[in-house]
Write a structure and sequence with these properties.
Length: about 425
């Protein structure tokens, strides 16, 4: 920011302030000075000379922190670039994106990580922070230099879509990471069981599609949690999809393991029945599960047992999706619809609003050690102004993502981001319909 913008004072008045970190939900104003929040609450008074923005009673909450985002940059820019994923993010109230390292080349050494970080800063409107690879080339064979990568700016470590099959290697990774207090966020899946293209169930049999059982996830997760406890490592289950995995996390926590877990919004709102007549936009890894598992995850968000909600944004170009279901590439665009889809759980009465927002803002920020995700004096001025009740129909042609394969096509949602502010600057403002 230049000197002029650092001195800029802006007062957002007449807002419903929602801060899940403190539990505050009430009317008030929020004052921005120099790219940070200087004051907020019912007694906040705009300084003399401040620009004044009337929020019209709309909700003002921290910008979302999306902890699992796949982009095509570098190496597959035809899928998504930092610029296009950033445009999708601002339209959805997301101000921090955590990008995965299974790119081309993989983010597996400090030089590549620094290159990706510079490239993101040059083209993105939001904060883009990389996770680094657990293994070289995300090949699951040789450890990366976790200490050097963390010093270069990696906020965590994962192999993205690829699980670590070798238990001995996973133990060494956890032991090594624990010496740096680094966060390990693997993908849990037993590849020998995960040969299907949707959830293994009566539905998959009816459709004639090979299925992957939920046990493929839970078995690997239980192994990892046992090893994390042995090595005293910080472990994050990057994406769980079933009740058994949620129970495994709860048992590990009770045993003293430092563990958090996330679920994608897709697995919280959709289930295997949505695959319907072989809809390839619903082809995902891990696959959509049955309704009982979906409800267990939703209850996990409501109770706090499930810490974080992610978009698992993984856009695919049309040629990867216009294929028979079993041949289509897994993945769906999700950053722009993350908040609106999540608000479905609030409007249905399944999850309290502040608890839902916590899973999207302060919880991921806290796990990653970021300042973001809260409304408080001194915090970054990253927030969104939202009309919680505004209805709209999801239309792929109106999405900002370069690849528009949304699983929510044609779905009626409630909750639209009207303005997104990052670093104190308005980077998105929705025009009146």
């Amino acid at each position: 920011m230049n000197g002029a913008s650092e001195e800029r004072l802006i007062a957002y008045e007449n807002a419903r302030l929602l801060d899940p970190a403190s539990g505050y939900d009430g009317p008030g104003a929020l004052i921005v000075a120099g790219g940070r929040i200087s004051d907020m609450g019912p007694d906040a008074v705009p300084p003399r000379g401040a620009e004044r923005v009337d929020c019209g009673g709309l909700a003002l909450c921290p910008g979302l922190v999306d902890m699992r985002v796949f982009t095509g940059e570098p190496g597959a820019e035809h899928k998504e670039t930092f610029a296009t994923v950033s445009a999708a993010a601002v339209a959805g109230g997301v101000t921090t994106l955590i990008v995965m390292p299974d790119t081309d080349p993989a983010i597996d050494d400090a030089a590549i990580l620094e290159f990706v970080s510079r490239r993101a800063r040059a083209s993105a409107q939001v904060n883009i922070l990389p996770m680094a690879a657990l293994t070289k080339g995300v090949a699951g064979a040789e450890m990366t230099e976790i200490g050097l990568l963390q010093a270069a700016g990696a906020v965590g470590f994962t192999d993205g879509h690829r699980a670590i099959a070798d238990a001995g290697l996973m133990r060494r990774l956890l032991a090594y990471a624990s010496t740096f207090d680094a966060l390990i966020a693997p993908y849990a899946e037993d590849a020998s069981l995960a040969s299907g293209v949707m959830n293994e169930s009566e539905m998959s049999a009816r459709l004639g599609l090979p299925g992957t059982p939920a046990a493929a996830e839970t078995l690997t997760l239980e192994r990892d949690l046992t090893l994390a406890g042995m090595e005293g490592a910080r472990y994050h289950a990057s994406q769980i999809t079933c009740a058994a995995s949620l129970n495994a996390v709860a048992a590990a926590r009770a045993a003293g393991v430092d563990v958090t877990c996330a679920a994608s919004i897709n697995h919280l709102v959709l289930n295997e029945l949505d695959v319907g007549d072989y809809r390839t936009f619903l082809r995902m890894n891990p696959p959509l599960r049955g309704e009982a598992d979906r409800l267990a995850l939703v209850e996990g968000v409501a109770s706090g047992a499930l810490d974080i909600i992610v978009s698992s944004h993984d856009p695919q170009p049309p040629e990867n999706k216009r294929l028979p279901f079993a041949e289509a590439t897994p993945g769906a665009a999700g950053v722009e619809t993350l908040l609106a889809a999540a608000l479905t759980l609030h409007h249905e009465g399944a999850v309290p609003l502040l608890g839902l927002l916590a899973a999207l803002t302060c919880n991921p920020a806290r796990r990653l050690g970021l300042e973001a995700g809260r409304l408080a004096p001194g915090a970054p001025a990253d927030f969104a102004l939202i009309d919680l009740d505004a209805p709209f129909v999801v239309k792929p042609s109106e999405l900002s993502s370069q690849s528009q394969n949304t699983p929510f096509e044609g779905r009626l949602m409630q909750g639209r981001v009207m303005r997104t502010i990052c670093g104190g600057e308005t980077i998105f403002e929705r025009r009146p319909a």
